[in-house]
Every structure is written in C-alpha cells, then in structure tokens.
C-alpha cells in the first residue's frame, strides 16, 4: 500500500476555495473512497485477524487516501461538479453549454 503525501496546492489555486468548490471536492473524495473500498485496495489481510476494528480502520484509511488524492488534483471530478453547480446557481440548465 502506497500512501500519497499531500502537496501544496498549485499557485493558480492559492485563494481559499469557496463553498461550491469545497462541496465538489467533498463529493469527489467520497466517490474515490467508495471506489477504493470496492476495489479492495485496503482490504484487511486474513492473517492479522483484526476483526471489526481492523475493518473500521481500513475504512478511515480509504477516506484519508481519497482526501489526499483530491488535494493533489484528484481525477477531475470536482472540476466538473463545481462547473455544473455554478451553472445551476446562475439559473441555466446544466447541459445548455452557455
């Protein structure tokens, strides 16, 4: 298992994120955590026998890993979500392209 350490945000994102951006990043993080869990990336080994505690810890580990991935740029899902939220906030349909 490789843990990706968080890196400083790029210069173009120096301003603190607004509520829409934070919401979009939270959704991307939740999505990535679920994908990591479904893929079995953090599945506890059968040899340790940690039981429920080990299963809960791996869930927290997947969440932390997903947050670190988003902090490093993620997979671009937050960008798409943020754009859609901004379009909706302006009162235009999400698929209008304007």
Which features does this protein show?
3 helices, 98 residues, mainly alpha
Could you walk me through the main structural features you see in this protein, from its secondary elements to its overall organization?
The protein has 98 residues and is mainly alpha-helical. It has a domain at 18-37 and 52-88. It is 56% helix and 0% strand. It is built from three helices and no strands. The chain has helices spanning 19-39, 51-71, 77-89. Helix 1 runs antiparallel to helix 3. The longest helix is centred in the first third of the chain and has 21 residues, at 19-39. The mean pLDDT is 80.
Describe the SSE topology.
Layout: H1 19-39, H2 51-71, H3 77-89
C-alpha-based Rg, rounded: 17 Å
Percentage of β-strand residues: under 5%
Structural class, from secondary structure content? mainly alpha
Regions with little confidence, pLDDT below 50 for 5+ residues: none
SSE order = HHH
Supply the number of helical segments: 3
**Mean pLDDT, nearest integer?**
80
What is the CA-CA span between the terminal residues?
Answer: 43 Å
User: How much helix, percentage-wise, in residues?
Assistant: 55-70%
Major β-sheet annotation: none
Label the overall shape. Answer: elongated
How many strand elements? 0
């Amino acid at each position: 298992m490789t843990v990706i350490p968080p890196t400083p945000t790029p210069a173009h994102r120096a301003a603190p994120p607004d509520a829409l951006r934070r919401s979009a990043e939270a959704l991307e993080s939740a999505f990535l955590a679920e994908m990591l869990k479904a893929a079995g990336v953090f599945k506890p080994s059968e040899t340790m026998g940690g039981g429920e505690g080990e299963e809960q810890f791996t869930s927290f580990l997947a969440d932390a890993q997903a947050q670190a991935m988003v902090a490093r740029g993620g997979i671009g899902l937050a960008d798409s979500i943020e754009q859609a939220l901004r379009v909706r906030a302006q009162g235009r349909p999400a698929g209008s392209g304007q």
